[in-house]
Amino acid sequence: MSESKNRVLVTGATSGIGEALVYKYAQSDIVTACGRNQDKLAEFESRGVSSSRFDMTDKQQVFDAAEKLEAHDIIILNAGVCEYIDNANKFDSALFERVIQANLIATGYCLEAFIPKIKKGGQLVIVSSSASFLPLPRAQAYGASKAALSYLTRVMQVELKDIDVTLVHPGFVETPLTNKNDFPMPCLVSVEQAAERIYEGVSKRKNEVHFPKRFTLFLKLFSLLPFNVWLPLAKRIKR
């Protein structure tokens, strides 16, 4: 990182990992916090953090917000949702569409609108999930959206010129989204720990940041094995 202050934009900034990233970067950089929660954005403003209010799933709002931005050194696309399909035999296509729209299609809107706002030599950071490593129970929508997001990011790493791209694969992080989970979350970390890991990885311009490694390496290992090794374990988790 340059010793001068970077301009950093964070989407999904009004809660969870995004909020922690705003406070982390605001210690040394100039931050634009993006989200829909006006009260939280006003709180950021009161602390000297610029804000931009828009809904990522609304393409016009994304483009209108981008038009008002100056060039940034780092853009972090973090916003997303998590919903589960509880009964695969009664597939919920409306839920599936909502999650794909919020996690994947909306990211596409942001890529089109915000890539021109990244300085030459700057960085694009996309937050996916370690759920993309393996098929997990109830994660038809969430896992599919994050697997597609990871693939999309990898292609952007191949294709983008003059911009470094970091793909983030968090494990379980204690956020308002995961607080709704009704199942054990091994190796759970705090949002502050997650923000620190992401900050460190982006500072080093890593291609991938995944954490906590004692959890993500376990998933990566099983992803390398034949699927019939993982299948009975996944079914056991479901039960």
Automatic annotation (TrEMBL):
Keywords attached to this entry: Oxidoreductase
UniProt key word Oxidoreductase: yes
GO CC annotations on file: membrane
Keyword field contains DNA damage: no
Top-level taxon of the source organism: Bacteria
Entries under SUPFAM superfamilies matching the protein: NAD(P)-binding Rossmann-fold domains
GO MF term set: oxidoreductase activity
Family: Belongs to the short-chain dehydrogenases/reductases (SDR) family.
Protein name, UniProt field: Short-chain dehydrogenase
Organism, scientific name: Pseudoalteromonas luteoviolacea CPMOR-1
